[in-house]
Design goal:
Shape: elongated
Number of helices: 5
Strand content: 35-45%
Order of helices and strands: EHEEHEHEEEEEEHEEEEEEH
Radius of gyration: 20 Å
Strand order of the largest sheet: 6-5-16-13-8-9
Helix content: 10-25%
């Protein structure tokens, strides 16, 4: 976690695609920025990106500003909002504080994925899954070049610490606390009593190959299809060098967010 930053002078705004979801929020944001002397700018040249939306909108913003020095702070207008710094009711005071410099920046690792020569970057997770609902696939997998066998299942999730509280968590995978430089590998509905989630450190790549005869699988990064996996095709996932920058209020630790989101 990086310490509190300088006051904000310019912001970019990323909002939910449905205007009804954030009805009135943009008007409220205009009043907050005017009072703080903050300018709303187009493009990616800003001190801070403000998200009005849920975790999906947060992911979109983190992708947009990946590789820049622009951190992303969220006002939750979604269901879970684990990545958000505040709710709509706290928007005025929360953004006022963030604009004044009361914010901390969490550097979160990303995932580099290669699917038969096609490269992509994921912030949450990479999923290899069956293309036919109700039909298993057989996935050969290895970590760090060491063969770990073939697993019949509905799919496998490789999640960053950011994504460990998403699909990975709902599939019984481990939660990775922010700051852990690792990724979680979790099978979805494995046809085995011995398929256990695995936490993999930086430097070791996960390779998954579709071994299902006559049945394609699919590779997905952050919910977006990369390409179909024909029998014999493979996916390689490793921790990337780039990090996404998440802005929170100073008192908001990982466990604060975890308690508010999952333990209440």
């Amino acid at each position: 976690m990086l310490p509190s930053a300088e006051p904000v002078r310019t912001i970019a705004v990323v909002s939910h695609g449905d205007p009804e979801v954030i009805a009135g929020a943009k008007v409220k944001l205009e009043a907050i920025t005017a009072a703080a002397g903050v300018e709303v700018v187009e493009g990616d040249d800003a001190d801070l990106a403000v998200v009005l939306g849920g975790d999906g909108t947060m992911l979109r913003a983190l992708h947009r500003f990946l590789g820049t020095t622009v951190p992303v702070i969220g006002v939750n207008f979604g269901r879970v909002g684990f990545l958000s710094a505040m709710g709509p009711e706290d928007m005025h005071e929360g953004l006022r504080r963030a604009f004044a410099g009361e914010r901390r920046i969490v550097e979160l690792p990303t995932l580099d994925v290669n699917v038969d020569g096609v490269d992509a970057v994921a912030i949450n997770d990479v999923v290899c899954a069956t293309s036919a609902i109700g039909r298993m696939v057989e996935l050969a997998w290895s970590v760090g070049g060491e063969d770990l066998g073939v697993q019949p299942c509905d799919g496998v999730i490789c999640a960053s610490s950011t994504g460990s509280t998403a699909y990975n968590l709902s599939s019984g995978g481990p939660v990775l606390v922010w700051g852990l430089d690792a990724m979680a590998v979790t099978f979805v509905s494995p046809h085995s009593l011995h398929a256990r989630p695995l936490v993999v450190p930086r430097g070791l790549a996960l390779t998954v190959r579709n071994e299902t005869r006559g049945t394609p699988a699919k590779a997905i990064a952050d919910g977006m299809p990369i390409r179909e996996l024909q029998p014999g095709a493979q996916v390689t996932v490793r921790l990337g060098e780039r990090r996404s920058l998440l802005a929170l209020l100073p008192e908001m630790t990982f466990f604060h967010r975890y308690r508010e989101t999952f333990a209440s």
